[in-house]
Specification:
Blueprint: H1 2-14, H2 18-27, H3 41-48, H4 50-68, H5 84-104, H6 117-127, H7 129-146, H8 149-167, H9 173-189, H10 191-199, H11 209-220
Helix pairs in contact: 1-4, 1-5, 3-4, 4-5, 4-6, 5-6, 6-7, 7-8, 8-9
Length: 221
């Protein structure tokens, strides 16, 4: 019974619509009516600016961390000693997925949320900090080279699956399956972005603009 209550709690934590509440409270708009129409950190960054985009990103990541860490509330006496590690991994996956589901379909915002990447990262950070750090590295490198957040997210999710399956070779079968599902989920939730990338119409985030200006000047000289 306590496990079910914690799963529901994880969903409710994930359902906190950070960008929607910020946009309505501070700007009297609904972020989903602007930009890409997505209730995530990237669209907040584009529409409301770097400050608010960063705040949304941090909170959405923390949702994943907090929700996934709820497993510590489960009394130890309900877990057999020889099954503790397996139970911990499986239950953390369940909690994290509930939070991601809440972010994508938030009960507090009409079930119209974001794509869940930031909350998913928070989940991975709570479970596998080193793997999360590697994924951040992939994300930042791709973002630096392309300035496409969507492409960075997709490649980081694929890197996550590769890390779990081959590099770290995790022994927990459910976690291996989960890593594949994560990559597929991120790809599926970014279908529109993939189409725009292929058509050359995907928006770039306004970072490293001074670097781009210098490159443009060099080409003109």
């Amino acid at each position: 019974m306590i496990e079910l209550l914690l799963i529901v709690s994880a969903y409710l934590i994930g359902s906190i619509p950070t960008s929607v509440w910020i946009s309505k409270y501070f700007f009297e708009i609904d972020i989903r009516d602007y930009g890409s129409g997505n209730a995530g950190a990237t669209n907040t960054y584009r529409v409301l600016g770097k400050k608010w985009g960063t705040i949304v990103m941090i909170v959405d990541v923390l949702k994943g961390v907090v929700a996934t860490s709820l497993y510590i509330i489960v009394p130890l006496y309900v877990i057999r000693d020889d099954q503790h590690d397996l139970y911990r991994t499986n239950f953390m996956i369940g909690l994290g997925l509930a939070a991601v589901l809440g972010h994508i379909f938030p009960i507090w915002a009409g079930f119209r949320g974001g794509k869940g990447v930031a909350t998913l990262f928070g989940m991975i950070m709570a479970m596998q900090p080193l793997v999360a750090l590697c994924c951040v590295g992939v994300f930042l490198i791709v973002l630096y080279l392309t300035r496409f957040v969507s492409l960075s997210s997709i490649l980081a999710s694929i890197a996550f699956a590769i890390l779990i399956l081959f590099i770290f070779d995790d022994a927990v079968q459910l976690y291996r399956v989960f890593s594949i599902l994560v990559a597929l989920m991120v790809i599926l939730t970014h279908q529109k972005n993939i189409n725009r990338l292929l058509n050359g119409t995907e928006s770039k985030v306004p970072i490293l603009k001074y670097r781009d200006r210098r490159r443009q000047k060099r080409r003109q000289q």
